[in-house]
Design brief:
Layout: E1 2-6, H1 19-30, E2 34-40, H2 51-60, E3 67-71, H3 77-83, H4 89-103, H5 108-115, H6 118-124, E4 129-134, H7 137-150, E5 154-158, H8 162-165, H9 171-176, E6 183-186, H10 189-198, E7 203-205, E8 221-226, H11 232-248, E9 254-259, H12 263-269, E10 278-283, H13 287-295, E11 299-303, H14 312-320, E12 324-327, H15 332-341, E13 345-347, H16 351-363, H17 371-374, H18 379-394
Helix pairs in contact: 1-18, 2-6, 3-4, 5-7, 11-16, 13-14, 14-15
Length: 398
């Protein structure tokens, strides 16, 4: 098939928002399909090719890899200022309302820059289907418009929380604008429940993938925290629970490793542990390095964020096969996923729960996860579901 995937986050962006679309594109290209990934320019001052250059490049492109098409945002200065929190509150609210109602979303500047390539994509590539991920409503508007111009179906991907991302008073209005996708993929069962509140039509759960790494033994007792903190107060309480345990445990050679974009914040909030364990702050690291770190952990710990509905990092940590500690809650879906894989998940609601969980982790030997379950986790395996959805959409079967 020939498909255009649309996602605002460039594959090179060091953020989880860049993973899903780019990795599925790679997996489908490996299966013999031709995929263009339409993204915003990264870094923001990157020089983007002209439509004429894109048309010529498509003719000679090596389709053993996706064609990444970066687009530079254009215009809509007020929306950019509102996104950055500039200006007075009343002015920002007016801009936000106008951006959604009139322009279709808060990122019309990126959409304007991208739409300049639509005619070229149709002429030089002739897409058979468009897949756009929500992220933001502009991505869906672009997928909708490109599909209409190319006379092909589009499939909506629902990977974020509509209730949390769309302002009150506009949720139903904006949902009504996207009633025409041939199908909808959703990130998880929790996302399916959320999507069903706002959208009719057929939907398929499409979990993102990971690259599982075999669990490895480590000389240190390694506690790993990775990715976004989400809530400073929750992390502070988690740290107090860890301090309680560190103050009494006989376990030696303990280290706390953080990998992610919030090293300075985590360094400050974990200061109470400084005299009780070695702390290491690794910054943002690549996916393979992160997977190896998580597979070497004695315990992988994270803050649950209910706004996410489902954590991508839950997939990573279950695949790592090491004990997991979530604070202060976790969804039924994630608990069931960990149980099915045979992965120990400790859901802690207070400092005492954290203390007891760390004692169990320090004392126990835990079996590895079920390899048959983990065989479903790689991107290539997950991509088979997306391939089926897109193929059926092209065939008019929704």
């Amino acid at each position: 098939m020939r498909a255009v995937f649309i996602n605002q986050c460039h594959p090179d962006m060091p953020h989880v928002c860049s993973l899903r679309v780019s990795h599925f594109a790679e997996a489908l290209v490996a299966a013999g399909h031709e995929i263009i990934v339409l993204v915003e320019a990264y870094p923001r001052d990157a020089i983007c090719p002209s439509p004429e250059m894109v048309g010529a490049a498509l003719v000679t492109h090596d389709w053993s890899k996706p064609f990444i098409l970066p687009c530079q945002p254009e215009g809509f200065v007020k929306a950019r200022r509102a996104r950055a929190g500039r200006g007075n509150a009343l002015g920002r609210y007016a801009t936000i309302a106008k951006s959604f109602i009139v322009d279709g979303g808060m990122f019309a500047d990126w959409r304007a820059g991208s739409e300049a390539y639509f005619d070229t994509l149709i002429k030089a590539f002739a897409p058979e289907v468009v897949w756009g991920t929500f992220g933001n409503t502009d991505t869906w508007t672009m997928a909708q418009k490109l599909a209409q111009k190319a006379n092909c179906p589009w499939v909506a991907d629902f990977k974020d929380n509509w209730s949390a991302f769309i302002p009150d008073g506009l949720k139903n209005l904006m949902a009504r604008r996207f009633r025409d996708p041939a199908h909808m993929t959703v990130l998880s069962k929790s996302h399916l429940d959320e999507a069903d509140r706002w959208f009719d039509g057929a939907k398929t759960v499409l979990y993102s993938g990971v690259n599982p790494v075999l669990a490895t033994e480590n000389a240190a007792f390694r506690i790993v925290i990775a990715g976004s903190v989400y809530d400073e107060n929750r992390l502070a309480q988690l740290v107090l629970g860890l301090r309680d345990w560190l103050s009494t445990t006989a376990t030696q050679n303990i280290e706390l490793c953080y990998a992610g974009n919030e090293s300075e914040l985590v360094k400050r909030l974990t200061a109470p542990l400084e005299e009780r364990c070695q702390r290491r702050f690794l910054g943002y690291i690549g996916l393979n390095e992160l997977a190896a770190l998580q597979a070497s952990a004695t315990a992988n710990i994270y803050i649950h964020n209910e706004r996410c509905l489902f954590h991508h990092k839950a997939l990573e940590l279950v695949a790592a096969g090491r004990p997991i500690l979530s604070y202060p809650d976790e969804t039924t879906e994630t608990r069931a996923m960990a149980a099915e894989a045979g992965c120990a998940l400790f859901v802690c609601q207070d400092r005492n729960d954290i203390f007891k969980a760390m004692d169990v982790i320090a004392a126990g030997n835990f079996p590895g996860p079920d390899p048959q379950v983990l065989a479903q986790f790689p991107w290539q395996a997950r991509a088979k579901t997306l391939e089926t959805v897109l193929t059926r959409a092209i065939g008019g079967k929704g």
